Fold this sequence. Notes:
Blueprint: H1 2-27, H2 31-34, H3 36-52, H4 67-91, H5 100-130, E1 136-142, H6 144-156, E2 162-169, E3 184-185, H7 188-197, E4 202-206, H8 212-221, E5 228-231, E6 246-249, E7 252-255, H9 264-284, H10 286-299, E8 305-311, E9 317-323, H11 348-356, H12 363-369, E10 373-375, H13 382-391, E11 404-406, H14 408-411, H15 421-436, H16 440-454
Parallel strand pairs: 1-2, 1-4, 2-3, 4-5, 10-11
Antiparallel strand pairs: 6-7, 8-9
Helix pairs in contact: 1-3, 1-5, 3-4, 4-5, 9-12
Amino acid sequence: MRKFQDLLARIFDVALVLAGATVASQIRFDYLGQSGFYWALVMFSAAFALAIFPAFGVYESWRGRSKLALAGQVSLAWLIVQACALVLMYSLHRIDIVSRLWFSYWTATTGGLLIAYRLITHAVLARARGAGMNLHQVAIVGSGSQCDVILRRIESAPTAGFRATAVFNTRPDDSTVTSSRVPVFDSVDALADYIRTNDVHELWLMLSLSEEPLIVELIDEFRDDLVNIRFMPDVRSHALFEGSGVVDLLGVPAINLVASPLSANAMLKKEIFDRLFAATALVALAPLLLGIAFAVKLSSRGPVLFKQKRKGADGRVFTIYKFRSMRLHTEAKGTLSQATRNDKRVTRVGAFLRRTSLDELPQFFNVLRGDMSVVGPRPHALEHDDLYQKVVAGYINRYRIKPGITGWAQINGFRGETDRIEKMERRVEHDLYYLGHWSFALDMRIIGATIVAGLVHRNAY
């Protein structure tokens, strides 16, 4: 049945590639009817799509997985196909023969059709699963609390197509699982009899890394049965960030326990956004930057910019830029005094800049250079790093990613002077929350909050 579905999906993909080319011809002249080379190009892309799409997992079952991720995979695969088509045309010295506008229409139309076809198919399947059809029955192995968590997740996502039908509680003293919802077993033999008798499709092992003997026993028990066994290791007590996830290292899956929770793909997206945002901000704010520079120069003797060494991603040291807000002064070697309320070192212009955070604007140059990000944990002076790293738990993990001009801690009020350890602890808590829950939407929320309400704050002085 699965093979037939795959074959049908591939036939539909070929049809959609041809349909996209036909629609593009109707929009921009009838190129398909004028030249056989156009049809040859279309057939090449259709054939190459059939060859490359499986590598992107677009024909796999996406039951319970993100449909947005599926759309992204289809888009990426199709763009690679079309990029190869362009390379082919260039190699054959035929790139001037094909209309660029028609090729663009064809690429966009077919990409939209490929994505729409899959989303509609999944919507139909989701409706069917929500009505109780096309379900996979699941048996869960784990402690009572672990089983209860996954039971609630299954119940909250009925369209994913899973139905919990049995639980093996590895800790009978933990009675979190409500036995009225699903039968609860306390022996492998009883669970195995139930799975075989009731045609259960899936066995999910919610077990810790220390329960290897039970894992091996269950795999041996169902070695000759058509039951999908999925290991969902419980690493909550070991992982630094919640939901640290699995990465691929040299073709081997690895679970991040103590590492940056942001994937390489997420870091790349963040990097691209940072550079574009910083370049746009510097161009748009150029008159303001010049005006502030002029005001700083007139306010007191000394340079316009204040430069200081800070730690960036992975502890790399860089030079941070700010508009100078204090009069020139000297500090004792190895010490650094934070600005306090009514600090006599702060100039009148500097006080305004610090209160409105305008002194931070030159850090867009740091973002453009790749030292910083627009959003991230705020970098501290090296002297403060040395101090707080010893007394604040998790402090060093702020440097798993690039520091930011603004951050989750700052928009929640944790900015300015940290005259008590408790203030720094709360700031670090917010920074680690940001790392564990990063998303592009969260970055947009922080930037919006900074622009709307975060520029002026009572703790900024």
